[in-house]
TrEMBL record:
<dbReference type="GO" id="GO:0005829">
    <property type="term" value="C:cytosol"/>
</dbReference>
<dbReference type="InterPro" id="IPR000845">
    <property type="entry name" value="Nucleoside_phosphorylase_d"/>
</dbReference>
<feature type="domain" description="Nucleoside phosphorylase">
    <location>
        <begin position="18"/>
        <end position="196"/>
    </location>
</feature>
<dbReference type="GO" id="GO:0009164">
    <property type="term" value="P:nucleoside catabolic process"/>
</dbReference>
<protein>
    <recommendedName>
        <fullName>Uridine phosphorylase</fullName>
        <ecNumber>2.4.2.3</ecNumber>
    </recommendedName>
</protein>
<comment type="similarity">
    <text>Belongs to the PNP/UDP phosphorylase family.</text>
</comment>
<keyword id="KW-0328">Glycosyltransferase</keyword>
<keyword id="KW-0808">Transferase</keyword>
<dbReference type="Pfam" id="PF01048">
    <property type="entry name" value="PNP_UDP_1"/>
</dbReference>
<dbReference type="InterPro" id="IPR035994">
    <property type="entry name" value="Nucleoside_phosphorylase_sf"/>
</dbReference>
<dbReference type="InterPro" id="IPR018016">
    <property type="entry name" value="Nucleoside_phosphorylase_CS"/>
</dbReference>
<dbReference type="GO" id="GO:0004850">
    <property type="term" value="F:uridine phosphorylase activity"/>
</dbReference>
Length: 245
């Protein structure tokens, strides 16, 4: 089997579970939780490592920012036999009662980005694997569970107005990758879930929030730690029974 064009990986024996992150730097953060980690590749935004967590082989790979590069990663991960993907990402809160560093777990997603509509019509729902979602509720009952929104950018003139529009419908948080994970995962029969660390308060300054993430501010770093630990616990012992639900 030839290497996949972008992630530069080929099928690995007994590796069917993956954690995807946006930032390549976060791959090294997750790596610290793995036994016998092996650095694999770093091509463009796709940095990868494989290791063992409590007996499970786990692949960790970065996707970069946004739907297009995330779709490339998911397509190629499917081609090398990955069956379960959990996204460990960040989001901006869209409700005032979600503090920094708390986890938002997406129970469904508003597909407000462009790419997934090239795969299936906008009426097709973006939802996670229900068994993973139920297990997450057992392990992390205090997380915020609800619908999130995926979008294509931050700097449009009407961005604040758009966020308020969706906030009024009870949307919990916004990111740029979850809809791609859920839609492509469903189309390819993969098991998926997105765990998002809140790094920007609702209607707060975007630059300050993202800089807190980059500089590993304490409260944001704690949320990242909790999201990684939850993802690893969910993947531990999780089995693929042939169903995506």
């Amino acid at each position: 089997m030839e290497k996949q064009a972008h992630i530069q990986l080929t099928k690995m024996e007994h590796v069917t579970k993956a954690i995807i992150v946006g930032d390549p730097k976060r791959v090294d953060t997750v790596k610290k939780y793995l036994n016998s980690p092996i650095d694999l590749t770093f091509n463009r935004e796709f940095k990868s490592v494989v290791g063992i967590y409590e007996g499970e082989n786990i692949l960790v790979i970065s996707t970069g920012i946004g739907a297009p590069s995330t779709a490339i990663a998911i397509e190629e991960l499917s081609d090398i036999g990955i069956e379960t993907i959990i996204r460990v990402g960040s989001c901006g809160a869209m409700q005032k009662d979600i503090p920094l560093g708390e986890l938002v777990i997406s129970t469904g997603v508003v597909r407000d980005e462009g790419l997934t509509k090239k795969y299936v019509p906008a009426d097709f729902p973006g939802v996670p694997t229900l068994s993973l979602l139920a297990h997450a509720k057992e392990l992390s009952p205090h997380s915020h569970f609800g619908i999130t929104r995926s979008h294509d950018g931050f700097y449009m003139a009407d961005n604040a107005e758009t966020e308020r529009f969706w906030s009024d419908f009870g949307i919990l948080g916004g990111d740029m990758e979850t809809s791609t994970l859920y839609v492509l995962g469903a189309l390819k029969g993969m098991r998926t879930l997105a765990i998002l660390n809140n790094v920007v308060l609702f209607e707060a300054d975007l630059n300050e929030g993202v800089n807190n993430l980059v500089n590993e501010a304490e409260v944001v770093a704690q949320g990242e730690k909790e999201s990684i630990e939850l993802a690893l616990k969910l993947l531990r012992g999780d089995t693929h029974n042939g169903s995506t639900k």
